Amino acid sequence: MDNFLSFGGAHWALFGAGLAFIGGAIGPIIGITYAASAGTGILAEDPGKFGRILPIVAMPGTQGMYGFITAILVWFLFLREPQELREATIGFQIFLACIPVAVACLFSGVYQGRASVGSAALVARRSEEGGRALIFPGLVETYAVLSLIITILILLDIGGLI
Questions:
Q1: Dihedral angle at the C-alpha atoms of 71, 74, 76, 81, nearest 10 degrees?
Q2: 69 burial class (0-12, 13-18, 19+ CB within 10 angstroms)?
Q3: Which end of the chain has fewer beta carbons closer than 10 Å to its terminal beta carbon, N or C?
Q4: CA–CA distance from 155 to each of 129, 137, 159, 162 (Å)?
Q5: Does residue 41 lie within any of the structural domains?
Q6: Residue 158 and residue 152: Cα distance in Å, rounded?
Q7: Residue 73 falls within a domain, yes or no?
Q8: 2 within a domain of the structure (yes/no)
Q9: Domain span at residue 51?
Q10: CB 111 within 8 A of CB 30
């Protein structure tokens, strides 16, 4: 392999799978940090709110699962026998299919964490609003889910499964 542009199909597919996982991990790391910082402050005042705060803090972590699912799908559909994935154009298509999850989960994880901070503040003042407080970070989740769906559909199309 002389340079980046001479990647084979399996190399591009691995690059896409890795990028999907990394983007899906970095966003939740930052988002959970935001939410956990707010949550621990609330729990320092009232430890009894742990059950209401935990789902709010954990919610940004779902994007990490979407990146993981994408990476597993790339491996399962294309990389179990990488010698069959010799065409760089197919590998590059797989790489491009991974971008929606990589980018959307990176940003949605961060912003879902920021939305969770506001939800945690709501629970701090009115713990009975815990269910409603999940709606706001859940709205951000919608776009991470949509990115996973589009990535799966594209991967299935590339693999000839739809």
A1: -120
A2: middle
A3: N
A4: 40, 28, 6, 9
A5: yes
A6: 10
A7: yes
A8: no
A9: 8-158
A10: no
Round to whole Å and give the CA distance between 128 and 133. Answer: 9
Which residues in the chain land under pLDDT 70? 1-5, 82-84
CB 116 within 8 A of CB 138: no
CA–CA separation, 40 and 32 (whole Å): 12
| Confidence (pLDDT) at 84 | 65
- Domains identified in the chain, total number: 1
DSSP assignment of 79-116:
ISSGGG---HHHHHHHHHHHHHHHHHHHHHHHHHHHHH
Q: Name all contacts of 117-121 with Cβ < 8 Å and 24+ positions apart.
A: 117/34, 117/35, 117/37, 117/38, 119/56, 120/35, 120/38, 120/39, 120/42, 120/53, 120/56, 120/57, 121/38, 121/42
Question: First and final CA of the chain: distance in angstroms?
Answer: 33
Instruction: Identify whether 3 is part of a domain.
Output: no
What the block records as the tokens of 56 is 């709010």
Give DSSP secondary structure letters for 108-146. HHHHHHHHHHHHHHHHHH-GGGHHHHTHHHHHHHHHHHH
Q: What is the largest CA-CA distance in the chain?
A: 61
